[in-house]
Amino acid sequence: MKDSINIRIFTLFLCSSVFLCSAVFAEAADSNSTGVERYAIYIGSNSGGKNNSRLLYAGTDAMSFQKTMSEIGGVPESNSILLLDPTKDNVDDALSAVSNAIVQGKSVSRRTEFIFYYSGHSDENALLLGKSSYEYSQLKESISNVPSDVHVVILDSCYSGNFIRTKGGQRKKPFLVDDSTVVKGHAYLSSSSALESSQESDEIGSSFFTNAMLTGLRGAADTSGDNKVSLNELYSYAFNDTLARTESSSAGPQHPNYNITLVGSGDLILSDISASESALMIPEEMTGKIIIRDSFGKLISEINKMEKNPVYFALSAGTYTAVLITETDTMQGNFILKKNQLLKLDRS
Questions:
Q1: What is the pLDDT of residue 182?
Q2: pTM (2 decimals)?
Q3: Do 33 and 139 fall into the same domain?
Q4: Residues 6+ apart with CB under 8 A from 5
Q5: 315: domain CATH number?
């Protein structure tokens, strides 16, 4: 489950999300496709049943995750299904649709990868989907039955660490065309341990964990400086950022967990900043907390940049507000990012 309270920073504990919508898979990629084909299911469930308070941001977190992975994560919308406040049957139907699409596309892709994202209520034994539930052991078996070479499962919900412990049976992005790395297996990431609540916040309009994941995917987690974010880089960033934001909350610190069993050569790349239609460059001399909001005031990312190295951050074209907070001052300004532009953020 996800709980909710109000304190000075309007923290809420996460446990649910809103409507039901799904994208219909397009025909398999054209016959000239090679490399990696990536598929995804994104679930946001604000409703956790009558015994749980309704969440505020699980649905929008799922939509934001889909948008980010579509832009820089190599998952075209034609290979995506978005479910908002689904039932267990809806989830099973989506898993079947992904499995069928993978089977049909096997002849035109050398490797397939499947991403399963969930934000909502859960307890020690199952995801709580409104009036229905999905037991972890059964869910793990259902995901394992999807005929993909790689399974990446991201659960942003209370007690989601129990899933890890449970036993159970368009134009190609550049990093997906290159299939020189051969990786197979699974990666399970959870927003909290088996005994912890996951938390969402009015201040950021999102859960702490998902916001950290999205910020990391857009470039903040790229510690190697290659403009790509690997699975290991992303988990490390999300762990540290989530813990830092929650350790002083009234709910207590939140510790993301993982179980990664990937075999082969190379690392699993989850996003490519250079594939974005435009990007922001935060120069090496700029350090401190950098807050970026869109033209509607919605928080896009909050980056704590301490190291003196440049950060490239993927953004779609648009108008943004940036705030820089250092130990000595606070600065704010607006900038317009044009399509195919790399814009350097500076104090002027």
A1: 61
A2: 0.83
A3: yes
A4: 11, 12, 13, 250, 251
A5: 2.60.40.10
